[in-house]
């Protein structure tokens, strides 16, 4: 995308998200859980979770889980927070048949963040864009294994916007991962007298027709 030049000294850049499908997605693992105080383990087959931190496990963990499970945990933590998930110890299910899915929300149309099956030792952190999430665990009628244990904690949704007076970079929250639902970011860019503002988009991807970036001259 070519650079855009403005022969003015003040510029307002506004990002508006509609709260539905969101822009570019890549994996991002920079966030770390440095300390985690674990609440009582939840090993039931599903439920509604409102605690800010804790863990859930497959039924019977660390013993083998049962056949024909369809467990759903719905998470809703305090607003203005997002949810961080991280598997610990060994993740072990029947490859291709028993799986764990994490969704970015609690609606039926929530975006799938990750789906895991088989054996792995996972260190990656999976992050939602809002304060709700769903974890689903399904099994078939044959082989059973130990399953999983999953930590969860909360983290403030990053703020966006501000006032800029010098050269720099502006990004959507969590770029290059998904920006949050219903984002409203406003940047004011100010230049010295007799100077102009040049904006060069290095990457741009939003939900077509619903999420907008506008540039306004003041």
UniProtKB/TrEMBL annotation:
Pfam families: CUB. Residues 1-23 form the signal peptide. GO terms for molecular function: cargo receptor activity. This is CUB domain-containing protein. Keywords: Disulfide bond, Repeat, Signal. CDD domains: CUB. PROSITE patterns: CUB (PS01180). SMART domains: CUB. Residues 45-155, 160-218 form the CUB domain. InterPro entries: CUB_dom, Sperma_CUB_dom_sf. The keyword Lyase does not apply. It comes from Daphnia pulex.
